[in-house]
Amino acid sequence: MNRLLATSALALALTAGAARAETDPAAVVATYADIAEAAYADSLATARALEDAVAALIASPSDETLAAARTAWKAARVPYQQTEAFRFGNPIVDDWEGKVNAWPLDEGLIDYVDPGQEGLMGENPLAALNVIANPTLAIAGAEVDATEITPALIADTLNEAEGIETNVARGYHAIEFLLWGQDLNGTGPGAGARPYTDYVAGEGCTGGNCDRRAAYLAAATELLVADLDEMAANWAEGGAARAAVSADPAAGITAMLTGMGSLSYGEQAGERMRLGLLLNDPEEEHDCFSDNTHWSHFYDGKGIENVYLGQYTRIDGSLVEGPALADLVAEADPALDAEMQAKLTTTMTALQAIVDAAEGGLAYDQMLEMGNAEGEALIMAGVNGLIDQTRSIERVVTALNFGAIEVEGSDSLGPLQQ
User: Fold this and answer.
1) Residue-level pLDDT at 412
2) CB atoms within 10 A of CB 400
3) Is there a contact between 137 and 129 (Cβ–Cβ < 8 Å)?
4) Count H helices, E strands: the chain?
5) pTM of the full predicted structure?
6) What is the pLDDT of residues 209-221, one digit of tens each?
7) How far apart are CA 122 and CA 114, in angstroms?
8) What's the mean pLDDT in 52-72?
């Protein structure tokens, strides 16, 4: 190579290196906020579609309108689950999240349940309150007028009544219960099987109080839409969550990594997957009424990957993308970026295998059955992938050196070992 060509090649190499070293942390945080804005906007749009489907069910109950409402509920879970990576590192999200996705719930607070259900009451005195059947309630020693079931009654009086976390009266899972009913199949096949006649007004009503059940479902869905509208606004330009995470780029990067690590380890690997397997308990299944848990796990994992790669595919198929954590890590330690991306791929492959098995007839609650070696292997592959990628997330924290993170733990896993 002659001197001129060598000089030109060196100049190009230096220019490329300089470009790689110029990823602005503030731009990475801006991409993160843009993804949050888009994902919460999609969550809001799909919740509004769910509200329309619920209105159609209530106006004209049938097998078809009930199936359409259930389909709309599942569609609404797709973008929402991808937002869960914004928890933990963002107090505005974490303080709000319980309004929309709290679980497990003592469903007897809301509606009728199987009277022979073992352990119905447990330690919760309101576990069989059945708001739908009772226009007058006794809560915390006071009489409550529940003649009209409204969003305010659900939000201000019923949700977490008497300070008990399993008194979940609002959010996706309350709506899920009202659409599917209890799943009484244990670790056998089948989801909840609530009939559409539970919403038939007058003659033909099953389960009793069909008008009040319809009112509760409508109010809960209205409340979900309002809650998601609030969070979508928080991430839009000028919103409080966007402003908070953008104020200090180093703190913003730390929030991103905290959310990734805590969802990956303590929340998903631990509380949502490993715990249910340890207990062989389908009640620990995240979407336990609908048997949709496999998809919720998949999209939680996808949300973590989205944050690292700086990209999110919207429900209309368009792509939101920009400078990413992956760019910063590749500049600091290319081998670590390759490791991190490989770990994310391994986890998503394991979560996809759970989806494929569930869609093929082995539902997630069946995977939890004691002695089901195939189910245990599928779930543990996901758990192990999530744990392993969290170790790499912690190495990313060290490599970037923007600040320490505290990863949410789980009693079912113990401390994270490097």
Assistant:
1) 85
2) 20
3) yes
4) 15, 4
5) 0.92
6) 999 999 999 999 9
7) 15
8) 98
